[in-house]
Amino acid sequence: MAPLLQVSNLNAWYGESHVLHGVDMTVGEGETITILGRNGVGKTTTLRTIVGIIRERKGEIRFAGKDMLGVPLHRTAHNGIGFVPEERGIFSTLTVEENLMLPPVVAEGGMSLEEIYELFPNLLERRSSPGTKLSGGEQQMLAIARILRTGVKLLILDEPTEGLAPVIVQRIGEVLKTLKERGMTVLLVEQNFRFASRVADRFYLMDHGRMVANFPVGELPGKMDMLHKVLGV
Amino acid sequence: MTMIFGIPLQAFLGQLLIGLINGSFYALLSLGLAVIFGLLRVINFAHGAQYMLGAFAAMLMLEYFGINYWVALILGPIVVGLFGAIIERTMLSRLYDLDPLYGLLFTFGLALTIEGTFRYLYGAAGQPYSVPTQLAGGTNLGFMFLPIYRGWVVVVSLVACIGTWLLIEKTKLGAYLRAATENPVLVQAFGVNVPVLLTLTYGLGAALAAFAGVLAAPIYQVSPLMGSNIIIVVFAVVVVGGMGSIMGAIITGYMLGIAEGLTKVFYPEASNIVIFVIMAIVLLLRPAGLFGRDA
Q: Do A77 and B191 touch (CB under 8 A)?
């Protein structure tokens, strides 16, 4: 599978604090990749560095063959990378539909508003409500849905199931499977190991600001000892 | 003679009209301030100077190029808006990563520089600017005499305020502005060029101030000090309305203008301080302002 995203020797800093120490990873087109790791090992930082929110970075990020390191943040999406942050980023001064319509469409192939409402019927019912009046689960759906309109090739999700009820987690899993069937490439950070094992094709295990292992979902049973050791679970 | 609360109706309505006119300027100016503060988190002390620049733009365009009021009403805001955009892009934008106090100090210094320059060039005394012939004279409404130009100012400011509100609340550009006010980094990650949005916003705020300045030119004398005379009241309006609240700025602008006008009728001695008394009361009871987000 041709790599859509290739990250090599990626280093990142928060001020003087060196957070990423040479991250290497590849994400193939159509794959769903999950980054696992304990709190504070640099998972969110990896995503935010790839997107370009963290600008103090060195190394190589190639997306669809293009070097992304010099690309300004507002051009990341136009190159095909969509981002759903951990805090979801729903805007309180915008209605549900305004939140949905906010990110500009960057390429053809994104979902239409009708398709999105079909996939997330709750959002249709609450389309005129302020975005932040939705439940946590609905806000997460909205955060994912608004990126699906844009036509990006890679969807980056930061802990999409955090703090959500099991039934909502299951629903998000179904949505990710639907996206996979449509050929969307997904890179996510997830603490919920059971959820991750259901949706991912491949895992990266992260520790101390670098990737320490990389294996497909089929090899999961044989990696449990290592996962226990690194994740501490 | 018809009396209202012991005051002749004509005097009452006359002051009400003056209150409405002052309120129109307060609303237009506080609206620009609120838009700038909402997105840039900058307390734009240069707003009064930009209002003054609008009035001077109209006067100088007429003096040097024979450009009439109607063209100046469009060209003046464009010129001052462009000036604002250049200032934001080349200077103000360098201060966003610092404490907001630096933005305030910068715009304060900018206001002093602009005013000082115009005082040096044109002196402190006001200069007249004629009412356009189409709006000269007045009309007798039966119960009061209405100068047409003053009626025009009230109507056109209301239209400008509603237009700006619609732009911010009902358009895609407005949605970007509102979203960028909450989380500029995420809006940028979505593919919106937020730095350009900031420049546009500052330019729009400056243009609104200049628009008010051109409108004011035939009513007040065109003077380098006209901005600093009004800006303190406008800051009070913004505080009462709620910092960053667009509708709050508009409604409060008109409300306080009328309150000031009516105070002149009933207790003229207090008319200069009534707005500040209201501000103090609002700050005590609702620190976020009447229409502020926490209210």
A: yes
